[in-house]
Design goal:
Length: 347
C-alpha cells in the first residue's frame, strides 16, 4: 500500500485547489451532480465506448472526461497534474482491484478501509469487534440445513449458492475461497452513514460525528419475486442478483439501534486501521424479534444512495438543502480545503 506520507505530499502540492474524480458509473452521476452543486470541478474516468452514456446526463456528467482502455491503466500522473481527488465507489473498487491500494493519487477517505472490506473474514472480525450480531458461519462438515455460500468480491450478490448438506456443498463448490453463512430470515435494511472527523452536525462518536443520510433495501432476482413461481408449483433455486434499490424508512424503535450500529462500526474502525472516513453502509437483516444482524460493510459510497440524489427522509433533518451522499462528500472536501485539513480526510 502506498505510503501515507506520499499522498500527503501530493495533497500539499494541490493547495486549496482540487477536482473531484471518479470512474463513471451510476454512483458517479450523483457524485458529479453533488460536486457541481458545491461548485467543485469534476473529472470522469471512462472506458472508451461508454462515454456516450455518461455524457448524456447534463447534470450528472463530469466537467471533463479521461478516456481509458482498461480500468487497470489509470493514468495517475495525469490525475495528479489536474489536482484530482478520487472518490471510490463499488464499481471503482471492483474494476481496479488490488491496484487500488497503490494508486498514487489522493483518495477521499482512508484507503485501508477498502482493504478491510475486501476480505470477508476481516469484515466479520470488524463487525464482531463492534459487538454487532453476525450470521453464524459454518465449516462444510457443520452444514445441517440450508446455508448460504459466498465467494469473494462485491458482485452484487451474483453467484451465491444455497446448499443443504455437506455432500451438496462438495458437489457444487470447487472454489477454495468461500464463506458459509447461516441463512437469515428477515427484512434487509441498508443504512447509509457518513462520518466526519470535523463533525458539527450529527450523532457524536469517539472521533467525530455520523449522519444517517438514508436507508434503502435491495431488490434481488430471483429471491424477491420467488413467491410467484412457488405459488404455481415451481421450486426454483433462490438467487440474489441485485437488480435495483428501493427507499426504506425504519420503524421508530429501530432508529436508535441503527445509530448505535453506525457509531460502533465507526469507533471500531479507528481501533483496527486508523478510521473509516466519509460514507459507509452496514448491510443488515432484521428478524421478527427485531434483532439486527450485519453481514457486510461497504466502506465507501454505496449504490443504494442513488435512490436519494435529491436527499432522503433522513438527510432533510440535517440539511435545509437537498443533500445526497455525493453532495455531502463534495461539501466535506470543500470544508476541509477551507480549513487546510484536506490531509486529514484523504489517503
Ligand atoms: N446470511 C444471509 N442470510 C440471508 N440472506 C443473505 C445473507 N447474506 C446475504 N444475503 C442476501 O444476499 C445478498 C447479497 O449478499 P452480499 O454479501 O451483500 O453480497 P455482495 O457482496 O455482492 O454485496 C444480500 O443482499 C441478501 O439478500
Ligand atoms: Mg452486499
Amino acid at each position: 500500500m502506498i505510503d501515507r506520507k506520499k499522498i500527503e505530499d501530493i495533497v500539499d502540492g494541490y493547495g486549496k485547489d482540487f477536482k473531484i474524480a471518479t470512474i463513471c458509473s451510476h454512483s458517479s452521476l450523483q457524485i458529479f451532480k453533488g460536486a457541481r452543486e458545491e461548485g467543485i470541478k469534476t473529472i470522469g474516468i471512462v472506458q472508451k465506448g461508454k462515454r456516450k452514456l455518461y455524457e448524456s446526463f447534463p447534470l450528472g456528467r463530469p466537467d471533463e472526461f479521461i478516456e481509458i482502455d482498461n480500468y487497470k491503466d489509470i493514468d495517475t500522473k495525469k490525475l495528479r497534474e489536474k489536482n484530482a481527488i478520487l472518490i471510490p465507489h463499488g464499481s471503482f473498487v471492483e474494476y481496479v482491484g488490488e491496484k487500488f491500494d497503490d494508486l498514487a493519487v489522493p483518495v477521499y477517505g482512508n484507503r485501508r478501509s477498502v482493504m478491510w472490506e475486501r476480505s470477508r473474514e476481516k469484515m466479520f472480525q470488524w463487525i464482531k469487534k463492534a459487538g454487532i450480531k453476525t450470521p453464524r458461519t459454518y465449516k462444510p462438515d457443520e452444514i445441517d440445513g440450508p446455508v448460504m455460500v459466498k465467494f469473494p468480491g462485491a458482485k452484487g450478490g451474483r453467484g451465491y449458492l444455497i446448499v443443504r448438506s455437506e455432500e451438496e456443498f462438495h458437489e457444487k463448490v470447487s472454489e477454495k475461497d468461500y464463506m458459509i453463512q447461516e441463512f437469515l430470515i428477515g427484512v434487509r435494511a441498508y443504512p447509509h452513514y457518513f462520518f466526519s472527523p470535523f463533525g458539527k452536525t450529527g450523532y457524536k462518536t469517539k472521533n467525530g460525528t455520523i449522519e444517517l443520510l438514508g436507508v434503502d433495501r435491495r431488490v434481488e432476482s430471483s429471491a424477491d419475486e420467488i413467491a410467484r413461481a412457488v405459488s404455481i408449483g415451481m421450486s426454483p433455486q433462490m438467487a440474489f442478483t441485485v437488480i435495483g434499490n428501493e427507499p426504506l424508512v425504519l420503524r421508530e424503535s429501530l432508529l436508535s439501534e441503527y445509530m448505535e450500529i453506525g457509531q460502533r462500526i465507526s469507533d471500531t474502525s479507528f481501533d483496527l486501521f486508523g478510521g473509516l472516513i466519509g460514507p459507509y453502509c452496514v448491510e443488515t437483516i432484521i428478524n421478527e424479534e427485531l434483532e439486527i444482524y450485519a453481514f457486510e460493510i461497504s466502506a465507501r459510497i454505496v449504490a443504494g444512495t442513488n435512490v436519494y440524489p435529491d436527499g432522503s427522509p433522513y438527510s432533510l433533518y440535517y440539511y435545509k438543502e437537498p443533500m445526497s451522499a455525493g453532495r455531502r462528500i463534495a461539501r466535506e472536501l470543500k470544508n476541509a480545503a477551507k480549513m487546510k485539513k484536506l490531509k486529514e480526510i484523504v489517503y
